[in-house]
Write a structure and sequence with these properties.
The structure is a homodimer of 325-residue chains.
Chain A: E1 4-11, E2 15-22, E3 27-34, H1 40-55, E4 66-70, E5 73-74, E6 79-83, E7 88-92, H2 93-101, E8 105-109, H3 110-121, E9 130-135, E10 139-145, E11 148-149, H4 181-184, H5 186-199, H6 214-222, H7 226-250, E12 254-258, H8 262-280, E13 292-294, H9 301-313
Helix pairs in contact in A: 1-2, 3-9, 5-6, 6-7, 6-8, 7-8
């Protein structure tokens, strides 16, 4: 039986997941609740409750480090600069929790955590250089090089959703234009469907729906809707451009697609993604193209990765000056 | 006085440079000759001669590892898969030289070597996360993360000239379309100048020249030619798109522009590059933008980086099975 190495927490706009994770990356225990709305102090309190609750279930859990993956821009010192989907800004998550929990705490971006989780215990196991794109409401990402997560100088590495695929292109929620998120996120897939339906007379079972989002488009595609299938093929092409740029920069062993929307989008998007990557990666005939595959850990990727990261990187709270252990 | 750590060799299409490099990255001795044309065996012989010649100048140089940066796609085991500017293909440079030199040998891409050189001993000194674009006849690059050069799964990382800035855009010598090299290399700057002159009636002192290349455009811009200045501003914009994608993926502390064309292009291109990067990096108001600066080591960057890489990564030739030391 593997022993626990850390507690991992994954905080998205909707769900807050907590898990105790073993040395081999398997989950020993998991919990789930809604992400508290509105303010930082209720979020900190919720994390504290979840850590206490899950720590009660294991004899050695009280001293385990805690890793927190959170949807937002996170500084290396665990300050969440901006988490629009959770409604927080400049919240010193690591500092507050170290004081309250009296254990090592590390905070990182949620998609980066998921990438690390998949690399260590999921679809990327045994590979040391892995890129992951997470397709959900937005598009996130994570970069693992030499077996280590790349967090970057300011903690903002891995924002693969903001690799630019079309200069002056579609407006992205980040405020810029032409990011791959503006083409391949669930939100943007829905928007593109509506724009195309409004612009043309194409037949589609999406026409007339009250709400057209990425899930509706994927469902229509799965039901044989040609309009929806074509849109997802186009999405796959844009994703391929972003992947190709990253492959040229980093030459990973493998590229993973994860996040809530990936498995529904992939059947229609992935063939075009692969073709587009082949057409835009340097070295035809001199290299193998990295496999582009679906992630396998699902909702567990983030908690696993956050726990692994904390086990390896969380500064001890005593060493960090928060008082004696 | 610093002692020598390795011999670094930088092999481009025109010049073959050799240097003995000290622990602090300074050069103790340097040599230069033309890159031999045509075939692999003359290249191997030239390297052997240069190593012998420079080894004679230092008492401890006979056992120093040798690092070779070479313009081409290089596998991690030191096989040069494809070096079109040098005229070689599938040449096992490391294997051949280990047997002949009886010392540790490492081979890597020349632009990656230059990036490592600048990070350790040049404009990036003291920074652990540095990206470098090298602007020359083509556009190369190198990625340093956590103080270590990223070589990638197949040795092809750092091909930043092939980050895609315009899907379906200009044809790149790599065979693909829309790579930043197709907009920002010396070759492509010359081509774009000719295309614009042929397409319009714009006044320019470039009009009527026998040969319009990147150097001619830069010179014209420096001489006040508005047409050339506008072209270089556009080049700066495309470079900014590629840099922004890389910054979003990797969040480096600094981005460097090096290579033979950088200092001539920069006065006109760099302001637009910086503006474009600002407009396309995620997290306005929540982060500092990485500085984008000129490299400082010039022609020494490649030899310094190759030597540093060999000192840290060259497998011992005995350990590599090439016989006893």
């Amino acid at each position: 039986l593997s022993s626990a190495i850390a507690i991992g927490i994954d905080i998205g706009g909707t769900r807050l997941r907590t898990a105790t994770v073993a040395t081999d990356g398997t989950i020993l225990d998991r919990r789930r609740r809604s992400t508290p709305a509105a303010d930082g102090s209720s979020l900190i309190a919720a994390i504290e409750e979840e850590v206490a609750a899950i720590s009660g279930s294991l004899p050695d859990a009280r001293s385990l480090p805690v890793g927190i993956g959170i949807a937002g821009l996170v500084s290396p010192d665990g300050l969440v600069r901006y988490g629009p989907n959770i409604g927080i800004r400049d919240l010193p998550v690591a500092e507050e929790l170290r004081a309250r929990l009296e254990r090592p705490v590390a905070v990182l971006n949620d998609a980066s955590a998921a990438a690390l989780g998949e690399q260590r215990a999921g679809a990327g196991q045994g590979r040391s250089d892995v890129l992951m794109f997470t397709l959900g409401t937005g598009v996130g990402g994570g970069v693992v090089v030499g077996g280590q997560l790349v967090v970057g100088a300011g903690g903002f590495a891995g924002e693969l959703g903001h690799v630019i695929v079309e200069r002056g292109g579609r407006r992205c929620p980040c405020g810029n234009r032409g990011c791959v998120e503006a083409y391949a996120s669930g939100r943007s897939i829905g928007e593109q469907a509506i724009e195309r339906l409004e612009a043309g007379s194409r037949a589609s079972r999406l026409r007339g729906l009250d709400e057209v989002d990425g899930a509706a488009v994927s469902q229509a595609a799965a039901d044989g809707d040609v309009f929806a299938q074509e849109l997802l093929r186009d999405v796959g092409g844009w994703l391929g451009i972003a992947i190709a740029s990253c492959v040229n920069a980093l030459d990973p062993e493998m590229v993973l697609l994860g996040g809530g929307a990936a498995s529904a989008v992939a059947p229609f998007a992935l063939p075009t993604t692969r073709t587009t990557v082949d057409e835009h990666v340097i070295g035809h005939g001199f290299r193998d193209m990295p496999p582009i595959e679906l992630a396998v850990l699902g909702d567990d990727a983030g908690t696993v990765g956050a726990a692994v990261y904390a086990a390896e990187h969380a500064p001890d709270h005593a060493a960090a000056g928060e008082g004696p252990a």
